[in-house]
Amino acid sequence: MKKSSFLFILILVTAIMQAQERKQPTAGKPPVVNIKKPQSFTLSNGLKVMIVENHKLPKVTFNLTIDNPPFAEGDKKGVDDLCSSLIGNGSTKISKEDFNEEIDFMGASISFSSNSAYGSSLSKFSKRTLELLAYGALDPKFTQEELDKEKAKAIEGLRSQEKSVSAIANRLVNALSYGKNHPSGEFTTVESLSKITLEDIVKNYNTNFVPQNAYLAIVGDIKYDEIKPLVEQLFGSWKKTTTSKTIYPDPENVKTTQINFIDVPNAVQSEISLVNTYTLKMNDKDFFPAVIASYILGGGFNSYLNMNLREAHGWTYGASTNIGAGKYVTSIRSSSAVKNNVTDSAVVEFVKEIKRIRTEKVTTEQLDNAKAGYIGRFVMKAEKPESVARYALNIETEDLPADFYENYIKTITAVTKEDVLAAANKYFLIDNSRIIIVGKGSEVIPGLEKLNIPISYFDKYGNPVEKPVYK
Predict the structure, then answer these.
(1) For 401-418, what is the mean pLDDT?
(2) Which of 200, 235, 270 is at the close of a domain?
(3) CB neighbours of 8 closer than 8 A, spacing ≥ 6?
(4) Whether residue 46 sits in one domain with residue 182
(5) Where is the Peptidase M16 C-terminal domain (predicted)?
(6) 178 contacts 187 by C-beta, under 8 angstroms
(7) How many CB atoms lie within 10 A of CB 363?
(8) N or C: which end of the chain has fewer CB within 10 A?
(9) Count of domains forming the chain
């Protein structure tokens, strides 16, 4: 028995030593992804149609997108959201009940919003699915009864979030960063919802659901010559209308770092967000370095912020960074929810990690892991119909080169440590950041005041107020 045990231990030790001597395999060549180019045509009303034939599976997807510039709604904020809820709740060409019954029978999926429509079905039902999608999108039936139902649900939802620290934080991060009169900064209230009428919904639809800014991407087991006449028949009568574009001044970052504090007495945690606004377009040369820098800072489990605030200190379940990109002004937001008694310490660590990625080159391992993550996700998504449709749409709406996604892997692979450092310095403007904190003032403010960072106070609707006074 002893001899057998000794022999087993000897074999185990030998195996461990051999494993330690093995060299880590070198990474192979990046995979080659073949993304099919769409066949396109444009209707006289301006609708651009992109069709990608893919006969691997008997399935077809339809993506209709209205690429309108952002617009503010003022004292009736919520009209567009309600319009999204009402589209698809009936059509002038088919009843709501018959519509839903047909969808269930085919096993299809159709959904709508105020600026899009989506449909998916087996290829044998594709033509009928597209017909129903067109009926719902182009001939909606808006009724007072349905509007009253949706308004009541929206108002109830807002009231249920009145004391939610995370809901208040999400609302005010945008309101304070962009301004309450900016399309990205305004927010819905019970009062704004109460003012909305059925005429507002109809006007919003007629003004914004227009073909000249629309794209229809069709991907799947369908033939171009067969689907084109149907598209022309269903969407050719969609009337082109005159639309106006409002220019909004870009929000400005603060001149020096400041804390914007919102007191919520029932808060058991503080919601912390560090925010900068900027414009980062997908065709900018530093787009990929910026998103990789964001991932290393706060995009994965092993990111700077998560390893610091969660793993090293145990203050939070997670810390993250979200970076925006597109044609219009956007933002980068690093955030976390932490215990009240460590709010001030967490702010210090946030600032430290952002300064770190601005001053130190990332390691080879960190850079390679970030690249591998992006490449892996891209390869997994590239074959999916919804991804193919999104890529085709992005090339059109984001003014991307035709080979943007063909070169996606090559472009990511080419990003260097110096590129990441330069992008972090350009976009992670820690010296001009708003540090927006929603928390329990009586427990949090004394510690924050010791940081020697200017503090401004706001109520839960973004209005400036005096510093809270506690007994």
Answers:
(1) 95
(2) 235
(3) none
(4) yes
(5) 195-373
(6) no
(7) 11
(8) C
(9) 2
